[in-house]
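Cross-check.
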Amino acid sequence: MIQGNSTSQDTTVKIFTYLALGDSYTIGESVPEEDRFPNQAARLLATDSIHLAPPRIIAKTGWTTDELEAAIGEANVTDTFSIVSLLIGVNNQYRGRSLHEYKTEFTRLLKQAIHFAGNHPDRVVVLSIPDWSAVPFAEGRDRQLISTEIDAFNAVNKNISKKFKVHYINITADSRKAARDASLVAGDGLHYSAKGMAVWAGKLAGVMRTILQ
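Predicted model, tokenized:
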């Protein structure tokens, strides 16, 4: 088993560590802390006797790639983690930032994530950007354009993830189901509910299981 920066409660139980990097989706805007997808993933692993310390989350609503990068620098993270996840880019799209800028900054962030994972790319998981054109907040906007641009940003992060040989999870298709299922949307009409993020958490937990077992 990968131990990373794990500690032992006794001679048989390992406690793994998890760092989640991102924006409003990772911090779980509009849902309780326990319903954030990193926390839900940790609970799912616990049912398989894979124990994680409470996830450390560096994320804030509204952050773009450069803002996440700055926050990581300010956090002065010195630990190595058993698992690191990265989900970032929706605010780059929302603010009209370029794909070229995103490619450059996402690459730096992914390299940083790999460093936090002890320079083990196989301990890093990238999640695709959800498509906010499917939620009520997008009413009156060009939903097709939003969706097309999200796909373009995801094509960039997927290609970079492949280059660096990290795990990649597509949650974009799941996020688009919110157009037909209001229960997947949080009360603010923009972010995703605990139910919506449970799907992401299930996929993430599946990858984490493979890494940690």
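The two ends are 6 Å apart (CA to CA). Confidence is low (pLDDT under 50) at residues 6-10. Passed to J.P. for a second look.
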